[in-house]
Amino acid sequence: MTKNDPLTERIIAAAIEVHRTLGPGLLESAYEDCLALEMTLRHLSFRRQIGLPVRYKSLNLENAYRCDFIVEGEVVIELKAVEAIVKVHDSQVRTYLKLSGVGVGLLINFNSALLKDGIRRYSL
């Protein structure tokens, strides 16, 4: 995928529509529900709240992490509604990419005045 690939552009357009309608200041769960609806309306297939396994030596933890969305099997989305993105949020998305085997991730912080300022893209 290129940096401005059509799939991430469609996902970002859906997130912008949610942000334009609701604005900042709500709980993450509200944005998650609305983004799910908006992606459905845009005919994007996704899985939601996916448990990701962690294997440590002989221990298998089947649902050690939960990522918010995997879209079209190609993009991991992690949603936030926080004052600022910090390093642990970056680490979280990178871990989701590693555990899921998906090559592209979006971190979307809906608590931004302009949503474009609250979006980060990652790739393996």
Q: In percent, how much strand structure appears in the residues? A: 25-35%
- Give the oligomeric state of the chains in this entry, treating copies of one chain as homo and distinct chains as hetero: single chain
- The arrangement of helices and strands along the chain is HHEEEHEE
Chain-averaged pLDDT: 93
Q: What's the total number of strands?
A: 5
Structural class, from helix and strand content? alpha+beta
List keywords for this structure.
alpha+beta; 33% strand; globular
Summarize the structure in short.
With 124 residues, this protein is an alpha+beta fold.
Describe this structure as you would to a colleague.
This protein is of the alpha+beta class. It has one domain. It has 3 helices and 5 strands; from the N terminus they run ααβββαββ. The protein has helices at 6-22, 28-41, 87-100; strands at residues 46-56, 59-71, 75-80, 104-109, 119-123. Strands 1-2-3-4-5 form a 5-stranded mixed sheet, with helices on both faces. β2 and β3 form a beta hairpin. The longest helix has 17 residues, at 6-22. The model has no long low-confidence stretch (mean pLDDT 93).
Topology of helices and strands:
Elements: H1 6-22, H2 28-41, E1 46-56, E2 59-71, E3 75-80, H3 87-100, E4 104-109, E5 119-123
Parallel strand pairs: 3-4
Antiparallel strand pairs: 1-2, 2-3, 4-5
Helix pairs in contact: 1-2
